[in-house]
Design brief:
It is globular, with a radius of gyration of 19 Å. It has 7 helices and 7 strands, in the order αααααβαββββββα. The strands form 2 sheets. A 5-stranded antiparallel beta sheet has the order 6-5-4-1-7, with no helix packed on it. By secondary structure, the protein is of the alpha+beta class. The N and C termini lie far apart (56 Å).
Length: 189
C-alpha cells in the first residue's frame, strides 16, 4: 500500500491536483495589503505606544527607523497548564488579554491568532478535543504539538480574512488564550 493512499485528504499535494491556482497577477500586492491591515489591527488592539514597542520596531521599516537598536522584549505567556479535556467549559479571553501573549509577529509559540478568531473572544465554549498531533498540509508530515492546544465545539474559521475561503478549518486555541469556567456558576446565572 502506498503512502499516498494513507494520507489525509487535506495534504497539499492532493489539494494542489484538485484545485486551480489563483490566476490573479496582483497576488504580491494583495499580500502586502493583508500585512498592512494586520498591522493596523495590531495597533488598534494594543494602542500606539505598545504597538511601536512590541510590533513595529521588529518590522523591516522599524529596524531602519530604530537603526537596529530594537531589543526583543519578553512576552507574558501564561505559565500554568490548564490540562483541558473534552467537555470542559471555557471562556475565550479578550483580544487585549490574548494580544499580551503574542510576539511581534502575532504568534504564541508558533501559532498565530487570526482575525477570524476575534469574534469568539469573551464567549463560552466546550472543549471538543485536545490536540496532540496534526498533519502539516504542505508536506504531509505528522507532527506532535509542543504547547497545550485545543479545539472548541462549533468554532471554525469563516475565511473572511483569507479571500472568503469556504473550507471551514478548525481554529486552534492555546490554553493561554482560555479561562476555565465553573459549570455550577453558569447554571446559577
Amino acid at each position: 500500500m502506498s503512502s499516498d493512499s494513507d494520507s489525509c485528504q487535506y495534504v497539499f499535494r492532493h489539494l494542489e491536483g484538485a484545485t486551480l491556482p489563483d490566476g490573479r497577477r496582483a497576488l504580491p500586492l494583495r499580500r502586502a495589503w493583508w500585512t498592512l491591515k494586520k498591522h493596523f489591527w495590531f495597533a488598534s488592539i494594543l494602542g500606539p505606544s505598545k504597538y511601536v514597542s512590541r510590533v513595529f520596531r521588529y518590522t523591516r521599516l522599524g529596524r531602519i527607523v530604530f537603526r537596529g537598536r530594537a531589543r526583543r522584549t519578553t512576552v507574558n505567556r501564561g505559565k500554568k497548564n490548564l490540562n483541558l479535556k473534552a467537555g470542559d467549559l471555557v471562556e475565550v479571553k479578550s483580544q487585549k488579554e490574548i494580544f499580551e501573549t503574542l510576539n511581534s509577529k502575532g504568534y504564541h509559540r508558533g501559532l498565530p491568532f487570526t482575525k477570524e478568531m476575534v469574534k469568539y473572544c469573551g464567549k463560552q465554549f466546550r472543549v471538543q478535543k485536545r490536540l496532540k498531533k496534526i498533519i502539516l498540509e504542505a508536506t504531509g508530515e505528522l507532527r506532535t504539538m509542543k504547547t497545550p492546544t485545543v479545539l472548541l465545539e462549533g468554532v471554525v474559521c469563516d475565511g473572511t480574512a483569507h479571500g472568503n475561503c469556504d473550507r471551514s478549518c478548525f481554529c486552534f486555541w492555546r490554553e493561554d488564550w482560555l479561562k476555565p469556567v465553573d459549570p455550577l456558576q453558569t447554571e446559577e446565572e
